[in-house]
Amino acid sequence: MRVARLTEKQMERIASALAEPRRFKILKDLSARGEPMQCSAIVHSHDVSQATISHHLKELETAGLIDIVREGKCANIVLRREVWNAYVARLAEL
User: Fold this and answer.
1) HEC string of 34-92?
2) Are 3 and 82 in contact (CB under 8 A)?
3) 15: DSSP letter
4) Contact at 8 Å (CB) between 42 and 53?
5) What are the sequence ranges of the domains in the chain?
6) What contacts 13, CB < 8 A, 6 or more positions away?
7) What does the pLDDT profile of the chain (94 residues) look like in tens digits?
8) What is the dihedral of CA 79, 38, 18, 94, to 10 degrees?
9) d(CA 83, CA 66)
10) Among 24, 30, 51, 80, which lies 20 to 30 A Cα-Cα from 44?
11) Cα-atom radius of gyration of the chain, to the nearest Å?
C-alpha cells in the first residue's frame, strides 16, 4: 500500500484539527464504523447541536481528513484513510 506524502502545511492543518477532542472522537467513530456515516448519526452520538458538528466537520474537511458527500439534504461523512495513514507515518518519522 502506497502512503501519500503530506506537506508541512497539511501536517499543521491536521494537527490543528485534531487538537479539538471532539474532532478526534468523530474520526474514531468513522474509523470504527468502516463505512460512511450520516451527519445526523454524528450529531446524535455527540449530543451537541448540528451547528457545532457542522463546524467540526468543516475543520476536518479543511484538514483533508474527511470528505463530505452530499445527497440532497443528507450528508455522508467519509474518512480519508490514506490521509490519516500518511499523517501517522509522518509522525512516526519524528
Assistant:
1) CCCEEHHHHHHHHCCCHHHHHHHHHHHHHCCCEEEEEECCEEEEEECHHHHHHHHHHHH
2) yes
3) H
4) yes
5) 8-92
6) 62, 63, 64
7) 555 689 999 999 999 999 999 999 999 999 998 899 999 999 999 989 999 999 999 999 999 999 999 988 889 999 999 999 999 999 998 8
8) -10
9) 9
10) 80
11) 13
Task: Map grid coordinates 472522537 to a residue.
Answer: 25
Cell numbers representing residue 49 in the block: 447541536
- The whole-number pLDDT of residue 27 equals 95
Q: What is the rounded distance in angstroms from the CA atom of residue 32 to the CA atom of residue 37?
A: 10
The CATH number that domain 8-92 falls under is 1.10.10.10
φ, ψ at 57 (rounded to 5°)? -65, -40
Cell of 64: 483533508
What pLDDT sits at residue 20? 96
Distance, CA of 30 to CA of 36 (rounded, Å) = 7
pTM: 0.89
